[in-house]
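Whether sequence alone determines local backbone shape is best considered at the level of individual chains. When preparing material for the folding task, we compiled for one chain both its residues and its backbone structure tokens. No coordinates are needed to read the tokens, only the vocabulary itself. For completeness, the protein is quoted in full, as a sequence line and a line of structure tokens:
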Amino acid sequence: MADPPLLRIIVGPTASGKERLALDVASRIGAEIVSVDSMKIYKGLDVATAKAGEAEQRGVPHHCLDLVEPIEDFSAAEYVARAEAAIADIAGRGKTPLLSGGTAFYYLALLAGMFAGPGADPAVRAELGKRAERDGVEALHGELARLDPRAAEKIHPRDLRRLVRALEVIRVTGEAISSRQTQWAGFHGGGGGPLPPRPRHSFSMVRIVRDRGDLHRRIAERIERMAKNGLREEAERAYALRENLARTPLQAVGYKELFPYFSGEASWADALERLRLNTNRLVRKQETWFRKFPAVEIALSGDDHGAAAAHLAEAWE
């Protein structure tokens, strides 16, 4: 049996240039890109997610893009299964898997493994759902705070899906979900980093670092480009689906900021400004997450990634 492949990984916050750097490196070393992005798995959500275009995908094959429709929920476990299959396929053809994207949770699931919890219990979920409708989602959060304070600290008081799951685990197993998620203790502040001593894959990871002012400039320019390249039309299609839209595209930064424009509550300029502000906030969170990973830093400035790509390609050949 062949040895498992060494994964090459490029992480960085939104607008840091990781996708462009990954494309350049991949073309130099003959790699194929596995997207690690919880929004790019959705078909038709292309402009706001800065998804690689047809020409780029012809030049460098991409995987884990356009997996499901925007109305379909997609779990981290499903992502891991698809990513594992892509990695095996790439390596099986003698190519190099290069992972790039901004979803830290997907990296954790892939490298640290998924929490092996019990299966869904429809009766428990139905009962908790009815209680949330009757007493409010916050009532579930209050119960979780009593039964599993550590989990309650990490779950937003109105995140119904995660609250139901945490309470379901307690009801079914008698154990707190926080006591069963030890493989991610470092990521949640337990020290030692987010990954176990022996991750599920061997990998070499680099993290893009940019000056905050440079990053803010790039975010503003990115949104301006999107606005010129069909963002309004794409967001309007998402708005039309809002009653059925999956949780991730409904809640993630990218579309919800624009919905007030279509409902007549904000101007287009105000909606774009809200998108800019929320993207800046997202970037700060991403930087906090990725600083916990065991990665080599690569400092970038401006828009020329050639030198960094050549250096990485030489190191990863």
Notes: The radius of gyration is 20 Å. The domain at 7-114+190-316 is CATH 3.40.50.300 (Rossmann fold).
